[in-house]
């Protein structure tokens, strides 16, 4: 056989080998992470629930999902083991990076415009003009339709008008 005909098959087998190799590495890393779990660490399950590890067994782990509420989960259901700072930031809202004396975000955007409260702001008058109400001009399109209808009616004879 010619090497040129075997080249697509070799490339395909090589790509499959590389994909399975990276998948195996990810599985091994996840298994190592699950084996490194210890009581007291924060975890996120594959369902998105955050909990604290209470006990670790061979295939199961006991998680405290709420104060005083323990549940048994399979080790494979743990999606991530979180470090203490990240777990406290997500679950308890503790964020050491936020400074209590830092900049406070205003409730409205008026302070972001750069104008002081004393500045007069030009306001647009949205009220209707009374002079425009008195005149009541007809729309040009409506006027054209009326003119065309009148011209059509004038061109009919008495017999045409009764037939319809």
Written description of the protein model:
The protein is an alpha+beta fold and 164 residues long. It is built from 5 helices and 5 strands; from the N terminus they run αβββββαααα. Strands 4-3-2-1-5 form a 5-stranded antiparallel sheet. The protein is flat, with a radius of gyration of 38 Å. The chain starts with a helix and ends with a helix. The model has no long low-confidence stretch (mean pLDDT 77).
Taking all Cα atoms into account, the compactness measure Rg is 38 Å
Distance between the termini: 87 Å
Question: Helical percent range?
Answer: 40-55%
Strand content: 15-25%
Describe the oligomeric state of these chains in a short phrase. single chain
Unreliable segments of 5+ consecutive residues: none
**How many DSSP H or I helices?**
5
Listing every helix as H and every strand as E from the N terminus to the C terminus, the arrangement reads HEEEEEHHHH
Keywords summarizing the entry:
five-stranded antiparallel sheet; 42% helix; flat; alpha+beta; 164 residues
Quick synopsis:
The protein is 42% helix and 18% strand. The protein has helices at residues 3-35, 84-91, 130-135, 140-155, 158-163, and strands spanning 42-45, 50-56, 60-66, 69-74, 78-82.
Strand and helix map with partners:
Blueprint (H helix, E strand, L loop, with lengths): L2 H33 L6 E4 L4 E7 L3 E7 L2 E6 L3 E5 L1 H8 L38 H6 L4 H16 L2 H6 L1
Antiparallel strand pairs: 1-2, 1-5, 2-3, 3-4
């Amino acid at each position: 056989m010619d090497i040129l005909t075997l080249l697509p098959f070799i490339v395909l087998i090589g790509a499959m080998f590389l994909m399975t190799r990276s998948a195996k590495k990810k599985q091994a890393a996840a298994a190592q992470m699950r084996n490194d779990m210890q009581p007291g660490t924060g975890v996120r399950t594959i369902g998105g629930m955050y909990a604290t590890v209470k006990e670790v067994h061979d295939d199961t782990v006991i998680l405290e999902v709420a104060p005083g509420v323990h549940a048994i989960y399979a080790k494979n259901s743990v999606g991530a083991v979180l470090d203490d700072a990240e777990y406290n930031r997500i679950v308890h809202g503790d964020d050491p990076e936020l400074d209590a004396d830092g900049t406070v975000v205003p409730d409205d955007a008026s302070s972001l415009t750069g104008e002081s409260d004393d500045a007069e702001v030009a306001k647009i008058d949205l009220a209707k003009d009374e002079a425009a109400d008195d005149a009541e001009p007809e729309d040009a399109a409506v006027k054209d339709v009326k003119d065309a209808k009148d011209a059509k009616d004038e061109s009919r004879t008495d017999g045409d008008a009764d037939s319809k």
